[in-house]
Write a structure and sequence with these properties.
Blueprint lengths: L1 H29 L2 H18 L8 H24 L1 H11 L3 E3 L3 E10 L7 E12 L2 E14 L8 H17 L4 E5 L6 E4 L11 H50 L1
Antiparallel strand pairs: 1-5, 2-3, 3-4, 5-6
Length: 254
Amino acid sequence: MEFKRKRDKISDNVGKTIMMLFVLVIVGYIFPFRYALYCLPISIVIIFIRNNLRFTFSKLIYIKLFSTFVFVYLLFLLTISISPYLKIQEFKWSHPSWKKKEVEILDLEPHHFRGFKSNGHAFVEICFQSRTNGKEYNHIQQYTLKRYFPFWDKRSTSQKKQETLLIAEKMLVEKSYSCLVNSKNPNQAILFLPISYIDLRSSVFYQVLSSFTILAALFFIFASILIYLLTIRMAKHKASEKLYEKLLRKKEIS
């Protein structure tokens, strides 16, 4: 009986571990897998500290680990999404063979992607040329610069594309970009645009935040109206009670 109980416990723990790994694989398919590898050890350390430097395999620990991982992962995605500078530094650190190169911009083409029930986003496709050991390499990169728009922005698609194109052209003129080329394979290159510390408009969280702001404002207005109506109703109720008390006193006196 004791052996069966231990075997079932081990099987349960193995199953939970496999499920956790499966979640990591799914997450790694949507975003770079290395992001999850950064966040998992941090989550384990947090649970280890919160559990008084002890780590036991239990259902509660797995739930805590999963919820902590989700929180840390979302926080990491938010940070890396709104900070082009941190994204560049992370890429340099995780790709040591990629070196910074001066490139020649050949062409820019704006596009627009309309998301489901949203204004989507505009992006610029850039064709550029790098040179390694005297040989020229041409590269085409989509989504070099993204611009998300809040749902209340009712401008035409062409206007949004034109705005994004003008922003990209200005950044290129100001040299506000960085290009890294794989020294082991010069056919591989990535162009970062922009390179600022913060850029909310290039992050999908901007669209989420703008939508949340409107929803929060509507909730505040609705709550204010509801509180106002309840206050009036309570005031009328108190006035009715006072009037009833006065009438009752008059009746008792008479």
